[in-house]
Write a structure and sequence with these properties.
Helix content is about 35%, strand content about 10%. By secondary structure, the protein is α+β, with helices and mostly antiparallel strands. It is globular.
């Protein structure tokens, strides 16, 4: 979420050529797990309703102009894309054409922006 303003700008700049989606997966810092001081009071999700409520809470704090999907408790998205704690992908015609490094240290919005700029010029 630290790069949210830049993400919003990229969504705005490339909305005519790309669809953007956020997938909410397991809580990164649950109170009953690897909690951080001053973090949100969200425990590990035990039901899909809890996970959905956490995603909705995130949206009340930081509204997004793109769809927010919620991973199932079976963690299918997490197993397929290894997004924890955060990761950027570009998928074109069902094929992953860009896979960013794991966040927060390898999360590079400028790489996504550069890829989209290059594709826009094709």
């Amino acid at each position: 979420m630290a790069n949210l303003e830049r993400f919003r700008k990229i969504m705005d700049d490339f909305s005519g050529m790309a669809d953007f989606v956020v997938v909410y997966v397991a809580e990164a810092h649950p109170t009953d797990g690897w909690a951080i001081q001053g973090g949100l009071n969200i425990a590990t999700h035990k039901t899909l309703e809890e996970r959905t409520a956490a995603a909705q809470h995130m949206l009340t704090m930081e509204p997004l102009e793109c769809p927010v999907l919620v991973d199932l408790l079976t963690e299918e998205t997490s197993r397929a894309y290894a997004p924890v704690p955060e990761r950027l992908y570009i998928v074109q015609d069902g094929v992953i054409v860009y896979k960013g490094g794991p966040g927060p240290f390898e999360y590079k919005l400028r790489e996504v922006e550069a890829w989209l700029e290059k594709y826009k010029g094709m």
